[in-house]
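Worked Example 4.2. Consider the chain below.
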Amino acid sequence: MTFNDDTLRVYDANVGFVDFMEIESASADFSGSMLRVGTHLNQPQSSNAERQVDDLGVWNRELSAAEAFQILGLIAPIPGCTDSSACNFDFEATSDDGSCIYPPFVELGDDIATCEDSVFLDAGEGFTYYEWNTGDTSRSILVQEAGEYSVITSNTLPNEHALQFNGIDASAQFEESILFGVESFSVSVDCRLNAFAGNDSEPYSYIIGHPLTGGTNDHGFKIQTASNSLNGGFQVHINDEGTTHFNVISFDNSVESKVELDQWYDLTMVVDRDNALFSFYVDGVLVEAQTIHSDFGNLDHPNGLSLGIQSIHQTSLLNGYLDNLQVWDIALSEEQVAQFQTTVPSGNEEELVGFWDFEEGEGNEANEVNGSASSILLNNVGWTGDNLHSMFDFSCSAEDSIQVSFLVTGCVNPEACNYAEDALCDDGSCIPSGCMETDACNYNVLAECEGEECDYSCCPGPGCCGEGMFWDYELEQCQIFETCQEDLDGDGVIGINDLMELLSSFGTMCEEPEPETVEFTCGDPMNYYGYDYATVQIGEQCWFAENLRTELYQNGDEVPFVEAAAQWSSLTSGARRIYGSGDANCGLEGDTIGYCGQMAESVFALNGYLYNWHTVIDSRSICPGNWHVPNDVELEVLLDEAGNDDQGAISSLKSEEGWSEGNGGSNTSGFNALGSGYGGNLGNFSSDGHFTGFWSADDTGSSANASHLQLDERPYSSSEGTVFLNTNNKRYAHSIRCIKD
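Applying the procedure from the previous section yields the following structure tokens:
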């Protein structure tokens, strides 16, 4: 049992550590208490059972877990991270202490194949370091070339302190020598300069190295600033004993500015005995690699290594900062040097002699992170936490890659003039092809090359017109050829005068006259198949001001005229009729104004034809070009314009005559609706003088019924007025009014 101020821990020889208990400090005062063995303090008789006690030990301090396990004859557990997938997995640890750190997660997504000319790749938030294979170190990059892109992400390692040398009296010395002999080694250190020289007489400053003086025992290496004569910079030197052989590599500002003050640089020198090379890197970039002599001697100086000073003469003082010193007993490769530009060793690397991260932050001694190499004794060296070099933990990093492809762009329309067979993405460059003959039905005004074959049989177009007719492109409808074109003098007879007039122009080249264009204004008559329909402007709409009376569709086909009631009641295609004609019952709800008794010709002259709804939706179009049968919405607009109340609307739309006595309207709208009655779906006629209906182009969704505008001088029901949209069987016969497109 061990105890400190607030925790009681129990160990057992069979299982090791058993449990612990936190103790309130107020109850943990044992002063004045007597220690008893084999009995209870307050009840000495109650616990006097037979037992054996041996090897009793009492300490005036808490034993460590290792000490407790040793006393019990057990192997103490080694705490640490035991998860091999963790960044900080400790293969020696036997007891997980909850310290495991796991790699971050980065995902660039699925491979990209795009029609765009660039894409953004985003590695996501949550990291402090990003490194792309393009060299970018931002979170996202703009990609404009195809290829594979990868990113490594990591987070900042703790780096809170660095050593500060004042250039006056600050220096540091290794407590014990580090020997290199004639073996390969590498030294790396981060340096930020306030000046290229200190306040002594020397024109340069020591960063780290042996005190090279040129004497007999002058052998070793140094990393220093370049002298003032070179305008500053960095240099590395190696000398063998007696300075028989030496090498110097300079990275200075003599020609161009390479090194700036108040900026961190990573300086790495590498002595590769196996390949007889001496190399110097600045920020992971090779400055120069020199060949060293095959007889190059050892580099062990008796005075050992120092920082910020030439230790024999106490000169060449450093004015700047040092951090993250590494010493290796191998020649680091170029890849390894690059790796340690933004990260630091874990400290467990086999070839690592020592790593000093200078994170103590105070005191006169800097220790190697694992205590496996010499400490560094500090003399007037300060500590700083300002403007430190950022380091990243690549032992706990994440990586992902993505393939980016840019698809071929171009015109993907095989009908276009510039169709590109290999293009997968349309770039909007297609040049249209088509029929380039202006008199063809399918003439394409935008075509720049011949495409589809010209068609002269389409409808609407020339193919719509029957014998004796031609297609008027301006009116967009068929027109009847005028007869007797040979009557040149217009006297009604083709005679000698016509012949002489024709002969007088024999051999003259005919010029095609420019078509006369007349702009239509609503209110002007609209000629359709030889009949001039009155038109009227009502609000924003232009309407026929009289009922349709054509017997032909727009393409010239005839709309069948059906009189027989039995035939009408079974129709499923367009048809027309005249109120009261044929054998149908007439005037079922009263023959108010006598249409049933009149000749069909006189009724037609006043009211035009009644049509079934199949005529309305026929693709050949019953209205002339640029006109159409109105839909429900357009009829609602008409009612709104006619008046905002029932009686006002019907009066405004009704003609003054053509209704039962006394029931004519004001016709203030000019719509001139006549009480023409209707034909039922069984072929009967009804309600002349009382009622009129105008078909809508809208279906009701029912197979049997369609919509129409109904005007009735009698209220239809208690809830409906005298003018409204209603539905009827599609075989009903109603009037048609056309509305301008």
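The helical segments are 65-71, 334-339, 496-504, 565-568, 600-607, 613-616, 632-642, 646-653. The radius of gyration is 53 Å. Compare this with Example 4.1 before moving on.
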